[in-house]
Amino acid sequence: MRTHTMNSMKMYSMKNKTAAVMVISFFLLILGAVTVSATSSSSPFAFGGILQAPYGELEDERISSERFGLRAQLNLNPLFAVSADFFAGDKAYYAYSYPGGFSGPFTWDELNDGVSNGVSEDDYDLYARNYDISMNLIFRLPLGPFEPRIGLGPAFLFIDPNTDIRSNGGNWQGLGSSFDQYIDDTSDGAEIDYNLLAGLDVHFSSWFTLGAEVSFRYDAMGDMRDDVESMRDDNLKDILSRGYAGISAKVRL
Questions:
Q1: Residue 155: how many other CB atoms lie within 10 Å
Q2: Contact 128, 94 (CB under 8 A)
Q3: Segment 212-252, tens digit of pLDDT
Q4: Could you give the CA distance from residue 53 to residue 71 in angstroms, rounded to a whole number?
Q5: What is the 3-state secondary structure (H, E, C) of the chain?
Q6: pTM of the entire predicted model
Q7: Contact by Cβ (8 Å): 214, 231
Q8: Is the CB of residue 187 less than 8 Å from the CB of residue 159?
């Protein structure tokens, strides 16, 4: 048990160091780009929004977990850019039973399959809000108005549990502190992952762009490598089912 714990701590430490290196590199790139852009006649900055939904829900034509976020992009040169996405307030639902305790997270559809006790989504308060920030180094290939792009970078998920719990006919009152502790024990309040995306931007003018993309979240670089290598085995559909599909719009300032 001690060996397992020490190995887990070592892996978590290495993961934090890798993410820290990626974040520092990200900001150094921004600093360099801002310095260069000070002498440029055109702005390298673009801002906009992105709408995402799990690819599996799109395939099943039953979308319930869509999310809207903000995107900022800094173009370093014609081939490279750095971008940051921010998604705020997504709800992740949890269940509670005695003596089993808490379980989750679930989407609302998953929860409603048997453990929500008939409470409406608006009145169900055993949930946590997720605040998601991802930063990516983007490689882009300008081909006239079309721009294929791939990106990689660290992603941070901050989890804020609701502690004002009154659902289930009042039977869950007083669970707020226990739920807060459960989130803290299972997630440390925040998660550091790795983000991988691939997409296509279409430039309709020098200042307006629409795009489509798929993105994936990994908790280890090895998992990302395994998915990339296994694309040769004709299981792309299975890989896509674990990702998000999104559309974006950006305005260049």
A1: 23
A2: yes
A3: 999 988 877 777 777 777 766 556 777 777 788 999 999 98
A4: 16
A5: CHHHHHHHHHHHHHHHHHHHHHHHHHHHHHHHHHHHHCCCCCCCEEEEEEEEEEHHHHHHCCCCCCEEEEEEEEECCCCEEEEEEEEEEEEEEEEEECCCEEEEEECHHHHHCCCCCCCCCCCCCCEEEEEEEEEEEEEECCECCEEEEEEEEEEEEEEEECCCCCCCCCCCCCCHHHHHHHHHHHHCCEEEEEEEEEEEEEECCCCEEEEEEEEEEECCHHHHHHHHHHHHHCCHHHHHCCCEEEEEEEEEC
A6: 0.71
A7: no
A8: yes
* Cβ-proximal residues to 91 (8 Å cutoff; 6+ apart), any chain: 108, 127, 128, 129, 130
Per-residue pLDDT of 168-226, as tens digits, reads 555 666 788 888 888 888 775 557 788 999 999 999 998 999 999 999 888 777 777 77
| Backbone dihedral region for residue 174 (phi beyond 0: left; psi -120 to 50: alpha; all else: beta) | left
